[in-house]
Amino acid sequence: MSEAALKAPGAAAASGDANRWKALVFIALAQLMVVLDATIVNIALPSAQTDLGISDGNRQWVVTAYALAFGGLLLFGGRIADLWGRKRAFVLGLAGFAAASALGGAATTGSMMFGARALQGVFGALLAPAALSLLAVMFTDAKERAKAFGIYGAIAGGGGAVGLILGGFLTEYLDWRWTFFVNVPFAVVAAAGAYFVIREPEGGRNRNPLDIPGVLLSTLGLVALVYGFTRAESDGWGDAVTVSMFVASVVLLVAFAVVESRVKAPLLPLRVVTDRNRGGIYLSLGLAIIGMFGLFLFLTYYLQVVKGYSPVKTGFAFLPMVAGMITGSTQIGTRLMTRVPARLLMGPGFLVAAIGMLLLTQLEIDSSYAALLLPAMVLLGLGMGTAFMPAMSLATQGVEPRDAGVASAMVNTSQQVGGAIGTALLNTIAASATTSYIKDHIAGAASRPQQQLVALQGQVHGYSTAIWFAVGILAVAALIAFTFVNAGRPGSVPMASGEGAEDELPVPVVAH
Predict the structure, then answer these.
(1) To which CATH superfamily is domain 19-199 assigned?
(2) Which stretches are transmembrane (predicted)?
(3) pLDDT in tens, 426-469
(4) Every domain range in the chain assigned CATH 1.20.1250.20
(5) Distance CA 138, CA 245 (A)
(6) Against a cut of 0.85, is the pTM above it?
(7) How far apart are CA 110 and CA 104, in angstroms?
(8) Which of 80, 399, 88 is nearest to 210 (CA)?
(9) Are the CB atoms for 311 and 43 separated by under 8 Å?
(10) Looking at the domain that runs over 269-486, which CATH code has it been given?
(11) How many CB atoms lie within 10 A of CB 444?
(12) Which of 146, 190, 203, 331 stands 20 to 30 A from 108 (CA)?
């Protein structure tokens, strides 16, 4: 790299792809589609179950088939992006996701639906790390990178709540099938735009042969882990299959780590995860997602079952959280990321979110939306948005260009595993607290209305108990961010390219 490029990183970035901001629009659109899909289908699930004749025992597979394929194949998808090129992997992922969505919308049987969801997961696992790694290699100037990741972080954080609104509208006023069909125009526009606009920087591909043992061990290990938590939610933590999945997951992932430390061209180079900053980010982000996913679940049930909100009204009730996330990510995070170290955004961000969560521990049947839920959701959104934005950026900063795909995949993996853990763990805590409350109070309820009131009070007690755990988890995430993430502010150190990628655009080096 030239001396001039080292002295003027902003100029180097500016001389890169002039279309990178247009490219960001299509990358953000694709990310929105993937995040929307995580919640939009949940709203449509009761209607789809009735139409397709899916049993109560099998309905979980509409969610689980996607989660297993997506979570299990993320590392493989990230490596494919590094091998084939991120633009090619991105466009192919979009095309496949659109086809799988169309198949899901046209499903006539439960098996056809499960297959379509699994295919969505497969192509989502190719698409998600390709999108994030494209940002990592296209935006290298510190200020531009802050803006780009601010937009991306806002979508990653708030898209799920938008999915609740869109899912409610489509299911209530059209048909549940449109929660699948809506992905097709998203994907077509994003793929066409990406094909014509994105110019991936030359160099930086990882052309080493695929690490097949690593692919098999990581995929099977992650599938076992995600399925173990999914199974725990429905069958309990002591279930024989649940326990065997966790044991198998530990064995497979330990074997994966051993293999990766010995092969010449590993699927996941250990240098990616053993870096102090990235390791801290993956861990704190995963913990934060545990708390956030649990909150989505409990508030959705609280608003619909306890308060009697419709799906559409429930979706709109989440809008203050979305607004908070967008503000935290694009205004607070973006403006401060180039001025202060990442830990001073991530740590306080998680703490502000924990304060918002702490307010929700006061939930009661007659709690006021304006007095309690509104300020809690605004604080949660602001905190998460402020923390997510530098986390997304720093997780791919300083990575050798050839590793950008797998580093991006690890961000998605920590989110996916965190979501699976959050849903299972917090739901189990809530269910246990609810059962205990009803058992202790039902004897004093003589009439049926009193019994129904005790049942509702038990539900709310279960939610608030689980939310206390979420507060603690967010506090731990903040502690990890303060302790492990010691990188200076972006742009405070010289820029350098990754090893073996002389033709790559300069990538910021993380200060250790």
Answers:
(1) MFS general substrate transporter like domains (1.20.1250.20)
(2) 23-45, 60-77, 89-112, 118-137, 149-170, 176-198, 210-229, 241-259, 280-303, 315-332, 344-363, 369-392, 466-485
(3) 888 888 888 889 988 888 777 888 888 888 899 899 999 999 99
(4) 19-199, 269-486
(5) 39
(6) no
(7) 10
(8) 80
(9) yes
(10) 1.20.1250.20
(11) 9
(12) 190
